[in-house]
Amino acid sequence: MEMIAGQAREPGRTPELGRIPDSALRRGVFLVPATITSIGLLSGFYSMVSAVNGHFEVAAVMIAIAFVCDGLDGRIARASRTSSQFGVEYDSLSDVVAFGVAPAMLAYAWALRPIGSLGIGVAGLYVLCAALRLARFNVQTATAVDKSRFVGLPVPGAAMMISGMALAYSYFELDSPRTLCTLMVPITLALGGLMISRVPYPSFKTIRLDKRAQVELVIAMMVFAAMLFAMPQLTAFLLSTAYVLSGPALLIRGERMSAKVPVLRPVANPKPHDTNGASLEADTARRTRSLREHQPEHR
To answer: Residue 217 domain-assigned?
Structure first.
């Protein structure tokens, strides 16, 4: 047996130099989706800062960046099999900021400010609807049967609608605050209502990238990519508008969602506790005993 760098090596076996431990590698893979989620969260925060400072186009672009991050983190987590409950909760909190608060602040600072308190109320209702939509999604995602449909307008889709409108307003160099405010009040309320509704919306999570796509789909994607490169503001507005209208179109066509899943069901208590707290004391004693049994011998 040889000694190499203070370590024993068996004869005929080459040392593995520079190998990354599996635990460190897996920890790094887990950090990738969380990092992308953090970028989306910070993009939403910077969107709010930009909206307050009057940089509405920058605020809209930051929401678009958060939208891209929201699509990437989930796909990377599923592809690398690093999905976790922490990632789900963190992503949901990030969505509240990036797609709930940030678009509401953009809508208020950009269009709803002239009507004062009424504009604050309209923007606040949008935030509430976004939070309720995310909470309902978290409850129903485990029991959803049809993975190809969303129940209600997804929060990122509503945020991109507001972002796309701001980008299109800047693209056409419009300057009509009164008309803008008159249009944004019903549009913002309608987006909030669609989020908490049961209108079916298409989901793209079931699309398999490893399967061969149809020629028409490939051509359409190339056309959209060219439009996005040539006219990004207008293309973002058109795509977001088409997606928002796709839900009512499916509803008019006769498509309905499945039976309602209760979202306000009570949480069952896993352990009954008596009036003397005996169950709590027993649980504490059991955990203390377990800690003593697993303490290391050498301190």
So the answer is: yes
Closest alpha carbon to 70 in 207, 205, 217, 261: 205
CA distances from 202 to 90, 211, 243, 246, 254 (A): 24, 19, 8, 8, 14
CATH number at residue 136: 1.20.120.1760
- Contact between 181 and 112 under an 8 Å Cβ cutoff? The reply is yes
* Cross-strand bridge partners of residue 201: 150
Q: Is the pLDDT of residue 278 over 50?
A: no
Please give the average per-residue pLDDT across 123-151, as a whole number. Answer: 86
Burial of 64 (0-12, 13-18, 19+ CB in 10 A): buried
**Confidence (pLDDT) at 250:** 92
pTM of the model: 0.78
Per-residue pLDDT at 280: 47
Residue 71 placed within a domain: yes
- For residue 106, give the nearest of 153, 42, 62 by alpha carbon: 62
Interval 18-36: pLDDT, tens = 555 555 545 555 788 999 9
Phi, psi of 4 (to 5 degrees): -125, 120
Which region holds residue 140: left if phi is over 0, alpha if psi is between -120 and 50, else beta?
alpha
